[in-house]
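Handout, section B. The chain below has 245 residues.
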Amino acid sequence: MTIAPVLILGGRSDIGRAVAHRFARAGHPIQLAVRNPETVAADARDIELRHGVGVSLHAFDALETAGHAAFLDTLDPLPGIAVCAVGLLGDQAESERDMAAATRVMRSNFEAPALLLGELANRFEARGSGTLVGISSVAGERGRATNYVYGSAKSGFTAFLSGLRNRLAGKGVHVVTVLPGFVRTRMTEGMDLPARLTATPEAVAEAIFRAVKKRRDSLHVLPVWALVMAVIRNIPERVFKRMRI
């Protein structure tokens, strides 16, 4: 039986690399898509040696949305599973002052990932099979003063994934929404993160792997986040306006 290749979009990120290792460990060939493939050549070789699977490298810039279709045309074979780990945390204060910075955060977390998965969805639908995984964020569950530029983009991405899942139901294509919460990565290095609310890239990868195999629709990597965000969503607006969380 042929095991489906897994495309990792944003394969240079800590989460992307962890996802690549997890699926490779299960025997899946890996397609790593990154802006500069030479920067992950050593990672690709490591995955091949550790797990005995093929790894191909693909040049890909998520923000070059006009080139998404051409990029997907280069994939041979078309993957059976695609995991989108593209994203940019950015800095809220900078995004408030600099519209170019805000634009980059919004495009990196919503426009580019959504358009790319939409293009992949059309190809998977035409084939009649495939799984799409979008890594969104709990930050998208309610706008907060401390991260509303990033959070609003993730909110849009979560809604897009939900609609895509609804559209493709019964057509052989499954869509998974992943909400990690805090993750210890290079992107969050130096931040004081609460241990009970913080996952490792490996934990995120394991959650994604299990969600794909069990055909989950949406999940919080750490279940405690479902409770935390339920509380935050239900704080009355008159109270919420006085809070900084």
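Note. The mean pLDDT is 96. Compare this with the example in section A.
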